Give the backbone structure.
Amino acid sequence: MKLETLAYDNIKKVLPKGALKTVVYANISDTSYEIFFYSLFPGQGYKQCYELAENNVIDYQLLEGTFEKMADIIKGDKNYKTGS
């Protein structure tokens, strides 16, 4: 299965309902990761995932767990280069 499909299958459970589009950013290294997304809502513009969690639109713990799993998926891909 393609990495993009695996990543999407993992993150789709936290994507907010009503979003027209979502843009995901992921920066993964051997020792750390930074993942977040922005979702576009009609008449509201883009909202960042942590803002959505603060406003109880999405669950913060589920979001963090999802990002952790997503980082593991990316690190486990055959194209991931360690030491980068």
